[in-house]
């Protein structure tokens, strides 16, 4: 929570939380509470969606099942510093029109700047057109929509908790918004519509429909779905909302920096044709698009040599106290130990000494453990590494947070050229990888937005 003080409750208009009476400008709350706390705001000053009660009920159920509390209101007077202080995230559920006055807008801006989270659902993009700050927060404003119809959603991020449960595509029926501008430049797109799968799309074939980003100090998730009442009974859509809200509250971690210019080395239709296995064991390709380590100790390495600066991103998941790693800067070889002796390993291991655990440059430099622990998702959930190599400098980002900053000074090793590879450590070390992608860095791209620590 943003502050230690719990917010006292009050009665509220129809469709809001109920509880003990309290002063105006606050929401009814039962104390004590554990876990994150979420405020659902559904005031409308324009079109009103019949699905709003279904959305409130779904979010309450998700909260009860997953350890976070949910209050709901349509009373904008709660938007004061005191009224918002106890919430980890605010959800705008199909709000429409001008719903906050100037003082309420200022309070909400302050809440986000203090680290509060935001989740916008469907018509949250049809809200506050005369408030530029809000336009930047939500990411894009509504423009138009065709009739409700089935469409195919193409999942772009398989690690974010809002989309990690989905396959490569997601077929569902909803009212599909067109937006006044494409949010891709400033947000991290989680999923986009295939405009060839339905009629009425107007965004020239690049049609984001769910995204996330960090804005003015706070976390922001938006989904264009949720017009229909049926959406809130659909298991996949409920999981989509759950993941987005959990990320917005800070209960789950993900890399929500804008991502452009990456080429697939594995995933999204790119297979293992350009990879080679060195040593025993193997990597098993699974139907869900993941690679799983089998046996070892071996190394799956990419045959293209890297001779310039680059950013390597990949998603990984381990089930328990497993062991693997990502190698960079080693020569081509049929011997997996050549990578150990000549390159550097970015470790994946839940328990070892600091310089040999997750986020470390194995045997050389520990991660910033406080930053690492704050950014790390638990076993069974996906994490994203960015491994950024610039000359002899190696930066490691975990779920968007920099956790290590290492410079090679060993004349016998070099990060400036070599190969990349994934380790299969041995029997019982079960680690999954997916969506391995690389971007060659230009001077303009050489300075990433930095959040968190680093050595």
Automatic annotation (TrEMBL):
Residues 268-439 form the 3-keto-alpha-glucoside-1,2-lyase/3-keto-2-hydroxy-glucal hydratase domain. Residues 1-26 have a biased composition (Low complexity). Residues 38-248 form the ThuA-like domain. Pfam families: 3keto-disac_hyd, ThuA. GO terms for molecular function: hydrolase activity. Keywords: Hydrolase. The keyword Nucleus does not apply. This is Glycosyl hydrolase. It comes from Streptomyces nanshensis.
